[in-house]
Amino acid sequence: MKEKLLIVYIFLLVIISLNFFDATFINQKIVNYLGFFVVMGTVLVSSIYMFDRKAGFVIPVQMISLSIIFSMVMALFSWGQGFKDSLLETSQYMLWPLFFLLLHLKIPIRTLEKIILAYGVLYVLLYFFQYANAHTVLFGKPISGEEFSEQRGAIRIIFPGAGIFILSIFIAITKITQNDRYKWLYIGLAILGLIIPVMQVTRQFIAGVFLIYFYHFFKSQSLLKKSLILGAFAGGMLVLVNSDIPMIKGVIEVQQRDIKLGKDYIRVQAGEYFLTDFSPNILSQIFGNGAPNWGISSYGKFMERLSNTHEYFLSDVGIIAVYAMFGVFAIAGFGLMWYKSFVLTVPKKHQYVKYYLWYLLFTSLTWYSVYHYHYVIATIFALYIYHRSSMEQKKWDIVKHLLKTTSDTTGRTMTSAPVNDEKLINQ
What SS3 class is residue 23? Predict the structure, then answer.
């Protein structure tokens, strides 16, 4: 009974932390209050176990969690933003300590996979439902205007909660190569994992997913198959680039325009500003400025004016936004997390967690995937699965080594025993 309640809680925590996929037809006050109290309650309980373990991803998550919490002090010190405003705004980024609660509860990895896949399928269904009703904003918000409009050759809907969807499609491609019994269902989800990014015409989304797919299906092939895959990939790219598909043409045109702009590209200018000119003092350059309560506090109003006059948005500069809000120790935490994603081994059946972390790394300069609430819970799930499976594999490797050593020692003793007996007999 206790285990079932925990599973229900984790399942509901996902959709609550995603603000119900930013559904517009649910009372916003109810969503905000529910999200705040559930997330903060989870953070308070999880923090009890923050220092219970070491190794793996514990230190990176500790660094990120503590940096986010301390940033509220910096918002008060550097910008005069009160703790109430800071807490309300920062709560959406604070779920990281959940990692320690999951470690304490030892939630089965298979259970988390089922939850992730269920939400991945739900994401697909809701996205296509919203696409079919593009004239009415049901989830999220348009990039500009009051309704979803055609941009880059498509009706562009950046559907909320992409983190859980991305993690689910990486699970799908891993299950395909593991010959799971539900292989055809995973193939279907994996195909949708290619189609939906193209439909959303977001460059980093498309490039990140395509690169991970290519790497996964390419790495274990023979030399001949690798050559064929490379040829097919290059040929397919040429066909797409020269096609008349509006979405593809739209993405290419935007990319060519941004390359021509160079240093005048607005994201480059915003990145330089938040790196060098944003922080008002040395302490903020080290510990961050905190998360601004947009349009409410004086700090939030400053950010609103900055967006109106210069079009500088924190959401456009990814990991630089993490530095601006949470400081250098949060950056160090992310850096250590990505370093460990390359050096810590994980069983093949859980390779998808590496892919997810690499996707975050790939998109970290130009997208909010590293810190936004649309991604945080998926990142925590990935880190927990990675940490637990990696630690368990390390234990098994130690056990196998000990067994092998014992076996070798026993074998040597047994082979040497007749020699000793023979010496004794001869004496």
Answer: strand
Cα 305 to chain centroid distance, Å, stands at: 30
- 9/3 Cα distance (integer angstroms): 10
Phi, psi of 313 (to 5 degrees): -125, 135
- Chain CA centroid to CA 336, Å: 15
The neighbour count for residue 306, using CB atoms within 10 Å, is: 18
Residue 133 and residue 131: Cα distance in Å, rounded? 5
DSSP for 28-82 reads HHHHHHHHHHHHHHHHHHHHTTTTS--STTHHHHHHHHHHHHHHHHHHHHHH---
What is the DSSP track for 89-141? HHGGG--TTHHHHHHHHT--HHHHHHHHHHHHHHHHHHHHHHHHTTTS--BS-
Q: How far is CA 363 from CA 18, 48, 208, 246, 274, in A?
A: 20, 32, 7, 24, 18
Helix axes of 58-79 and 298-310: crossing angle, nearest 10 degrees: 90
Per residue in 387-416, pLDDT (tens digit) is: 999 888 877 667 766 777 776 666 665 454
Q: How far, CA to CA in Å, does 139 sit from each of 134, 142, 375?
A: 10, 9, 16
Going by C-alpha positions, the residue among 69, 36, 62, 59 that lies closest to residue 326 is 69
Residue type, 88: L
Of the chain, the end-to-end C-alpha distance in Å amounts to 71
Structural tokens at position 107 = 């939630």
Measured distance CA(225)–CA(218) in Å, rounded? 8
Q: For residue 69, which of 49, 40, 48 has the smallest C-alpha distance?
A: 40
User: What pLDDT, in 10s, does the model give residues 148-205?
Assistant: 877 766 788 889 999 999 999 999 999 998 877 888 899 999 999 999 998 887 778 8
CA–CA dist 172, 120 (Å, integer):
10
